[in-house]
Amino acid sequence: MKIIIFFAIFLIFLDKLITALTIKQVEKNYPNKDKFSIEKNPLALYFLVTYGLIMGSIFYGVVSILTFFFASWLFHFVVGWNISFIILCCIYVIVIINNIKWYFKFRR
After folding, report:
1. How far apart are CA 6 and CA 10, in angstroms?
2. Which long-range contacts (CB under 8 A, 24 or more apart) does 53-57 make?
3. Which of 30, 47, 93, 95 is deepest in the core (most CB within 10 A)?
4. Which of 3, 7, 20, 8 is nearest to 56 (CA)?
5. How many CB atoms lie within 10 A of CB 52?
6. Is the pTM of this model over 0.70?
7. Could you list the pLDDT tens digit for every one of the 108 residues in the chain?
8. Which of these, 28, 26, 23, 32, lies nearest to 60 by C-alpha position?
9. In sequence order, which residues have a C-beta less than 8 Å from that of residue 15 and are 6 or more positions away?
């Protein structure tokens, strides 16, 4: 169980890192484009615009960890703890793959 929790936190960190790297690529390669316009999540966009790239990513990372565990808690009533963590980690892997695709798109 502990390894799944650490893996989930690692996935969330990786998601935020790739998002920050993508925003940096947009800032570098597309100077006329608003660098935060690529973020489609309105809550993440709020944190990034309000607190900047670094602090916004940290604050939103904390919110993401809390919502991940809240969703796991809700989902465990249906399928159990281990399965709920595994399913949510799989969803995060899909999100990370999508972020990597966008990173390479804006990298040129």
Report:
1. 6
2. 53/20, 53/23, 53/24, 54/20, 57/16, 57/17, 57/19, 57/20
3. 47
4. 20
5. 12
6. yes
7. 788 889 999 999 999 999 999 999 999 999 999 999 999 999 999 999 999 999 999 999 999 999 999 999 999 999 999 999 999 999 999 999 999 999 999 987
8. 23
9. 64, 92, 95, 96, 99
